[in-house]
Write a structure and sequence with these properties.
With 683 residues, the protein is of the alpha+beta class. Among the domains are: 287 residues, no CATH class; 175 residues, tricorn interacting facor f3 domain (Immunoglobulin-like), CATH 2.60.40.1730. The protein has a 7-stranded mixed sheet with strand order 6-9-4-3-14-17-16, with no helix packed on it. α3 runs parallel beside α5, α4 runs antiparallel to α5 and α14 runs antiparallel to α17. The longest helix is centred in the N-terminal third of the chain and has 36 residues. It starts with a helix and ends with a helix.
């Protein structure tokens, strides 16, 4: 042990004096401080503080290569100048030297990483981010993506020194390994890696975030999971095994050779234990390939549900959500006015239905095909109580785990009476849009949630973990990384990486109230009040709103402050009016053009920047595959529209909306004729 201590002290002094080693930490520290300064004086007002740590990805990649070079030079220099001959030339001495170097490297890493964590935390406090799990989860991210790659760099440098000695080939080798396995490859070959689902074993070959600008999502948190750590642990164990195996050439005795064989075997067993964990449990919301697979599912699956299987009504739901090792749901649905022996329900296809029992406890036969569940029953009762038990599996579209849930009210996370799937394509250029699944009539709900993370639902709280109420149009259930704040009459649920809302809320509130009021007045909407419960979360980067009688789900993905005109407020007209005017997905091809003109009208009224480019071009893009005639009609429509006064534009939009809702034949000629009639005062 005395020899190990002497070696440790020797290497500590050498590392502390090294310009390359200490300079790498200094470079890292300076770049972090520069990021602080850039954010402090950012003229664009960027506030997505959760993604702030992702901005250091390139710096970590550079530091990894520099550390590889340092440890290669240190170890290869010893062998070149015969320093190893100062000790007995045995496996034990070499192993002790590597262990001493590693111990010092880990101590330096622990100190500087802890210092960086403190600095990042102080940065969050400077920008008034309330203390939450964001702070502790930031440590997890820094360990996974900043610290562990630099531990990996140590073994790669040592292995290169043992493999090549003092050779110029070693530098080419290190660059190749750095490009092939290091975190830099995720950036350089992002198009390739984005095509790989997290379950693909080839995902083992990237150890950095897929997108350094998107490492944090609302509700879900950082792109860090058990497989993230397991992937890095796999490569660290593999590099340790390579170092230990190449020491075979220093072994002189049978005992030393046996030690190498045992060490390699143990490390190989460690890799074998780690490997199965690499492809399971990742946060799929960050996976581009998994999201594409989900989109493809809805391109090819358009279920046909027979109206004869929907002759029933749902009066009540009693829901139990348990989020421990996995997420399980037990939902008792009280059915009324049942006709027929075969009933259909819609339930998201990633939720695995285990069993259905009736009120007597008898199991009912069912078939789950995609999003549709078909149930057979033998009784002729007009009323019944069926209990659905299912596991809620995580997916790229609907994030579900013991650490996070995002279940909006218009989604079929409960067995729902509906004649359509929960998502549909309305534009070939886009992703599938959610289609409202909830009926408008009141339903009595009880909901119990058993989990360890913050939870929100629009149901009133009755007791600890128990919620109950009568609600129209469904309930929202959200768990994970978010905060709640009350400002005046408003109860606001917002992302954990946002700063305190109070200073920005007044401007944002004024615009929300104005757009809501003017839309209701312009289109004669009845009984549409603005809820005081507002949920500002968008885990997928969506831009949409879902109005309910008791809460407004406003999914506005913005990296800027709430009062930013260019980054936030200019998108509000489109998001709010879409949710107010189109409760369900509308198939009319004129809807998108209508929305483009309505959004522009509101932006002009509120003196907001326009969120697009040339309006004629944007309007043309709103129509799938427009032919030459359609493009000409759209140019004519826009020209006629621009000649209207503001008052007549408002009148035309109101009449056009009514025409679309009444199921007009999508004739652009009739729409142009309507504009001319408004201009000439004939309506």
């Amino acid at each position: 042990m005395t020899l190990f201590a002497r070696l440790s002290w020797f290497y500590a002094k050498h590392m502390g004096k090294s310009i390359l080693y200490v300079g790498t930490y200094t470079f890292w520290f300076i770049m972090l401080m520069m990021r602080f300064l850039i954010r402090q004086y950012d003229s664009f007002g960027k506030t997505d503080y959760g993604n702030f740590v992702g901005e250091m990805t390139l710096i970590v990649q550079a530091a990894m290569l520099l550390f590889m070079v340092f440890f290669y030079k240190l170890f290869s220099d010893e062998y070149r100048f015969g320093a190893n001959l100062l000790f007995a030339g045995s496996l034990r001495i070499t192993a002790l030297k590597i262990a001493a170097l590693l111990a010092n490297h880990l101590l330096f890493l622990a100190f500087f990483t802890s210092l960086q964590v403190v600095l990042v935390w102080q940065f969050y406090r400077t920008w008034s981010l309330p203390f939450s799990s964001l702070y502790t989860e930031t440590i997890s991210y820094i360990v996974a993506y900043w610290l562990l790659p630099l531990v990996f760099a140590f073994f790669l440098g040592i292995f290169t020194a043992l493999l090549f000695g003092k050779s110029r080939l070693s530098f080419a080798w290190m660059v190749i390994i750095w490009l092939a396995i290091g975190p830099v490859n995720t950036q350089l070959f992002s198009r390739y890696f984005q095509r790989l689902p997290f379950s693909d074993v080839r995902s083992l070959f990237y150890i950095g975030p897929l997108n350094m600008d998107d490492v944090f999502r609302d509700v879900i948190g950082y792109n860090v999971s058990l497989p993230t750590y397991m992937k890095l642990l796999f490569w660290i164990l593999t590099s340790m095994m390579a170092v230990w195996a190449i020491l075979w050439k220093t072994a002189r005795t049978t005992k030393e050779k046996a030690a190498i064989i045992i060490g390699v075997t143990l490390l190989l067993a460690g890799d074998a234990w780690v490997f199965p964990h690499i492809c399971t449990g990742s946060k799929l919301v960050f996976s581009y390939a998994d999201l594409d697979q989900e989109n493809d599912f809805y391109r090819t699956h358009n279920p046909t549900i027979s109206p004869s299987t929907l002759r029933y009504s749902i009066e009540r739901y009693d829901i139990q959500l348990e989020a421990k090792n996995s997420v399980h749901a037990k939902v008792k649905a009280t059915l009324r006015q049942i006709q027929g022996n075969t009933l259909s329900f819609v339930l998201y296809h990633h939720f695995s239905l285990k069993q259905i029992t009736d009120q007597t406890g008898k199991q009912l036969p069912f078939i789950q095909q995609g999003d549709v569940i078909t149930v057979k029953r033998s009784s002729n009762r007009l009323t019944d109580e069926w209990t659905f038990e299912y596991q809620m599996n995580d997916s790229a579209q609907i994030p579900v785990s013991p650490r996070y849930l995002f279940l909006p009210s218009d989604f079929s996370w409960l067995p729902t009476k509906a004649d359509h799937a929960p998502f549909a394509f309305v534009n070939v250029h886009s992703s599938p849009a959610p289609v409202s699944m909830q009926p408008s009539h009141p339903i009595h709900y009880t909901l119990s949630f058993h989990g360890t993370v913050p939870f929100y639902t629009n149901l009133p709280l009755r007791s600890d973990g128990m919620y109950e109420g009568v609600v129209s149009s469904g309930i929202t259930a959200i768990a994970g990384m978010f905060l709640k704040e009350r400002i005046g009459p408003w109860q606001i649920v917002y992302p954990a990486d946002w700063s305190n809302l109070e200073q920005d809320w007044s401007v944002f509130e004024r615009h929300v109230r104005r757009i809501h009021h003017d839309t209701v007045q312009m289109f004669g909407l009845k009984g549409v009040k603005l809820p005081t419960n507002i949920v500002l979360l968008a885990p997928h980067g969506e831009q949409r709103s879902v109005y309910r009688s008791d809460h407004l789900l406003l999914q506005i993905d913005t990296p800027y402050s709430l009062h930013s005109q260019e980054g936030t407020l200019m998108y509000l007209p489109e998001i709010l009016t879409e949710g107010l005017l189109w409760k369900e997905t509308h198939s009319s091809r004129q809807k998108e053009v209508f929305q483009a003109l309505l959004t522009r009208w509101f932006q002009q009224q509120l003196a907001l920047p326009y969120s697009g480019g040339d309006l004629t071009f944007d309007v043309a893009l709103s129509v799938d595959s427009p032919d030459g005639k359609t493009e000409e009609e759209l140019r004519q429509l826009f020209g006629e529209y621009e000649r209207l006064s503001d008052r007549k534009k408002q009148k035309f939009l109101a009449l056009w909306y009514k025409q679309i809702k009444e199921g007009a034949d999508d004739s652009w000629e009739k729409t142009i004729q309507l504009i001319r009639m408004v201009r000439e005062g004939q309506t």
